[in-house]
Design brief:
The protein has 457 residues and is α/β, with parallel strands linked by helices. The chain contains 13 helices and 20 strands. The N and C termini lie far apart (58 Å).
């Protein structure tokens, strides 16, 4: 099989059996290694044509916080007629592609009760260890993420389960919620009742009865919000799965739908590509702040901004963070960047958004759900069983992992006709939106994790 060249400017190619890089020409020490048409690092020694290029002879070029200039270079996507999906229309006009019953604890102390209620009623509980002994912004992020789950339109009903004495007690959580649908959201503080299992069961059964009256309706796909995530990436991810997802992102955004790209550290080294696509200077400035604030977060904890590829990433052929980032952002296609989201924000615009948050898989998937994404397109080269609060479509970058872990993987994007692959993936997305269960749903893999950056009392 011939080595694969991604971009005409590249001086390395990809071995399509291993995902690792090979030099296309002699490369002098100190010369940039080019992949995807951009530098992914620098040669630490002379490299001969045909040599393997990896950690032994190249290193990152990433360093400190940078300044940037707004130089827009993008083309608006041509508008396309949206197809329809069948979804649940909520009272506020939002749509849901599921009608699940959630149990959302306000604090980790009631996790065992939430689990018991879940086993008894079939409701889905989202345990977490937070909601008490947190201060300032650290507590605020917990509340905002929980608010996003409680308000999520994929939930036909939600039981908010509190203890009573925690910092984030139900009264405080209600202040953060603001308003809610009283038929769809119920509250239970377990210190205030004699038998919390009996009371919780009654409330969940009432939510289930109400949700049973909801019916799917035809709505345009422009209502759909898609989260974009990669995890366990390999050398194929940027040229198969992420590239195919990028075509789907463009297709959906052209139809008026929304897509959300997160994992801010996995934009380091590729940020200028995104900055060029910001629709105006305000979005550009907020995008720059997104990148530099996260770099500062690393520096505040005395960590290098260049440290990201995991052992699995490196085994799969990814050497530097720049290389990982340039592959990661392929999921965003060529769509212009229309907005920048923070914890607690909600997607309200059509098009591609950037979302604050780390690259950690379960934290990222939780963040995407909390801003209102109906499903997450999760690309992987190494495989993962992970599933979040919303359907998590696992897309393999290679056939080996797709075949080995068919109970995890929903679709293999490996192949050279990316347009055909994107067409197939779009059909899968339509089926999932219409109710077809993803592998994570079938396996019962549903969990959340909340970003933490603060003091625990």
């Amino acid at each position: 099989m011939e080595p694969f060249i991604i971009h005409e400017k590249d001086n390395v190619c990809v071995d399509l059996q291993t995902g690792h890089k090979t030099a296309l020409c002699d490369i002098e020490k100190g010369t940039d290694i080019i992949k995807y048409g951009f530098p992914i690092g620098v040669a630490t020694e002379a490299v001969s044509k045909g040599d393997a290029v990896h950690s032994h002879n190249m290193k990152t070029k990433l360093g400190d916080i940078l300044s940037y200039e707004y130089k827009p270079d993008f083309t608006a996507l041509p508008k396309k007629e949206p197809f329809t999906i069948r979804a649940f229309v909520r009272k506020n006009g939002d749509i849901g592609i599921r009608n699940d019953i959630f149990i959302v604890p306000t604090v980790g102390c009631v996790n065992s009760i939430a689990k018991t209620l879940s086993e008894k009623t079939g409701a889905i509980c989202f345990s977490h260890p937070y909601g008490c002994s947190q201060l300032g912004d650290d507590m605020k992020i917990t509340q905002l993420i929980l608010r996003g789950l409680i308000n999520h339109p994929n939930a036909g009903g939600v039981l908010v389960l509190g203890l009573g004495c925690e910092n984030n007690n139900i009264s405080e959580m209600k202040k953060v919620l603001g308003t809610w649908d009283t038929q769809r959201v119920k509250f239970l503080s377990v210190q205030d009742c004699e038998d919390e299992i009996e009371e919780g069961t009654k409330l969940i059964e009432a939510l289930q009865k109400n949700a049973a009256t909801d019916q799917r309706q035809e709505v345009p796909v422009s209502n759909l919000k898609i989260g974009l995530k990669c995890g366990g990436s390999d050398g194929f991810s940027g040229i198969t799965a992420n590239a195919v997802v990028g075509r789907v992102t463009d297709e959906l955004c052209a139809m008026g739908a929304s897509a959300v790209l997160t994992e801010v550290p996995e934009m380091f080294g590729a940020e200028t590509v995104l900055f060029q696509r910001c629709v105006n200077e305000d979005v550009f400035n907020r995008s720059v702040a997104l990148i530099n604030n996260f770099k500062q977060y690393f520096k505040n904890h005395n960590q290098p901004v260049s440290e990201n590829p995991s052992p699995g990433n490196k085994d799969g052929g990814i050497t530097t963070l720049e290389e990982k980032s340039l592959g990661c952002i392929q999921k965003g296609g060529t769509a212009p960047v229309v907005d920048v989201l923070d914890y607690g924000d909600t997607v309200r615009k059509a098009g591609l958004h950037l979302l604050n948050g780390p690259g950690n898989d379960i934290v990222s998937v939780t963040n995407l759900a909390a801003v209102g994404c109906h499903m997450v397109l999760f690309t992987t080269g190494r495989g993962t069983p992970l599933g979040g609060a919303v359907p998590t479509v696992k897309i393999a970058s290679n056939n080996q992992i797709a075949n080995k872990k068919s109970h995890w993987i929903d679709y293999s994007a490996f192949g050279f006709d990316k347009d055909e692959k994107a067409k197939e993936l779009l059909e899968l997305i339509k089926r999932v939106a219409n109710g077809e269960k993803t592998k994570n749903e079938l396996c019962g893999n549903r969990e959340i994790a909340i970003f933490k950056d603060g003091v625990t009392l």
